[in-house]
Amino acid sequence: MSARASLSEPVFPPLAINASLVRRILVGFIRNEVRKVGFERLVLNLSGGVDSSLVAILAAEALGADNVMALVLPYRTSDPKSRSDALQVVAQLGIHHLEIEITPQIDAYFARFPDADQGRRGNKMARERMTIAYDQSWAWRGLVIGTSNKTELLLGYGTIYGDMASAINPIGDLYKTQVWQLADAVGVPTAIVQKAPSADLWTGQSDETELGYQYRMIDQLLYYLVDQRYSIDEAERLGFQRSFVEQIVRRVRDNQYKRRLPVIAKLSSRTIDRDFRYPRDWGH
Amino acid sequence: MSQDGRLTVALAQMDPALGDRNRNLERHRDWVRQATEAGAQLLVFPELSLTGYFLKDLVPESAIRLEDPIIRELGQLAQRLDVVVGAVIEEPDHRYFNASLYFSHGQLAHLHRKVYLPTYGMFDEQRYFAAGDRFRSFKTDFGRAGILVCEDIWHLSSAYILSLEGADMIICPSASPGRGITTDERLGTAESYGLVCRTYAQFLTTFFLYCNRVGYEDGANFWGGSMAIGPNGDIIAQEEDADEALVLASLDLGDVRRQRLANPLLRDEKLELTINELRRVWHERSRKPF
Q: How far is A23 from chain B (nearest CA, A)?
């Protein structure tokens, strides 16, 4: 799949954003949600992709470069460009960074399961990166900031308790195409904004190939289905192929579990998250 | 009111701590001090300023009762100026209300229980609160006023009733979370509130004081934008940013009389016709066989 020309192609008008307004809200969000729970620092996994690069910039703006730790965690099959892009963002922002190759522990584990497929290995890597982020969170006293966008979260295109795990997530309500707009506006290097999105769990992996559709198409459809609550029939009447609509609807539904806490068997009259309901920001 | 018929109002665009009444009471004292120093005669706090907004199951423990000592403490805030505070009120029958309390000369002078409790989208108020059952204007040192809390203003009848009851000033404490991102410089919510508040002021020829909070709760941002609007619909003062701010506005109270002379909408309002028509609509609705 060719790299998108995200900066030259026109944005689907309903998903066009005022980047400076969004930036202000998100920087305020990070500052507020981190400080009010007694933290001053953030830890993030920086892949060299557009999502984590954007979050790194917002985090540095919110709390200062000295309060942000980027973790660069390549595996032996990771694209070297991912690492160099990540390090470019680190240098640009002057944030702290720690590079830890995760090959030894991943390979040690899969030595026992040599037949493991790519999906299984990819999930394991995502969770390895998560445990390192949370370990550094403890060691450095920084909250883990997440980098999953709305498109990924809706499609379940992420590893539960892996890259989906975080304490706060500033970009979870922005579609991928909106992430591109904001990233461009806040100064994510153009090469990073322009490159084809990839989880980079194995060589040559591409989001859009795996998903089967381009983000531009998916985001337009999700906008109608999720934000505007169009039915499948109504979406089809807009000109989307029915098979595409049905696939996306199924993905959103089938991955609902990833967006929720584990389901708890109800016994008492006050069960956590069902009828024991407190705000996360309780007392802050 | 000062000799020249002007009133200085202050809107405390603040960020309350969620579920921490003592800390918020202390902050209220600071805002009162600031407003007093700035010469304000009326200070408005946002909706649920004493508790924060997304309380969920914290509603009962955040509540105060009208016989509690804290009511006297709040009254003490209103020694040198009138103060409007947002709080959860627990009634003797243990219903909880999202309420706004007007203190004057050290005493509780009026209390409005929010009537329209949003329970849709991101809101869940009817799960936790009982709904108020009245709109009443009341006398202040500066003319008649009425209070509408946030969602109350999204129902035309509420402001209309207060206006026909003689309100010269509608006070709207609010906790409006910002949403609706487009290419505009303002959030969709900020746009629509601006439109509604100005429309009411102009249609009803009243002053309109909108005090919204700022800050974040569980990821939701409150967009501020507190404003004072004159009876011709013009904005007298507004805080454009979503930062904590004391918004000061000097109102010429004579503007209401002059505006109603120029635009006698209220004089021409047909109350009896409205009541008769509404009664007819209500009868027709209630007569439907199923």
A: 11
Q: Which pLDDT does position B2 carry in this prediction?
A: 58
Mean pLDDT value across chain A:
95
| Residue A188, domain member (yes or no) | yes
Distance CA A30, CA A18 (A): 19
Q: Is the ipTM of this complex over 0.90?
A: yes
Q: What is the number of structural domains in chain A?
A: 1
Which domain covers residue A164, as residue numbers? 13-201
Q: What is the percentage of chain B residues whose pLDDT exceeds 90?
A: 96
3-state secondary structure A198-219: CCCCCCCCCHHHHHCCCHHHHH
Find the CATH number of the domain harbouring A109.
3.40.50.620
CB count, 10 Å around CB of B227?
26
Least CB–CB distance from B19: residue in A14, A168, A283: A283
- Asked if the structure places residue A248 within a domain, the reply is no
Specify which residues A168 forms β-bridges with.
A145
Residue A41 located in a structural domain: yes
* Fold designation for B6-286: Nitrilase/N-carbamoyl-D-aminoacid amidohydrolase (3.60.110)
- pLDDT of B290 reads 82
Cβ-Cβ contacts under 8 Å, A229 against chain B: none
pTM of the model: 0.94
pLDDT at position A2 is 39
Residues 56-115 in B contacting A (C-alpha not used; CB under 8 Å):
56-58
Residue B39 has pLDDT above 80, yes or no: yes
Q: What's at B135, amino acid-wise?
A: F
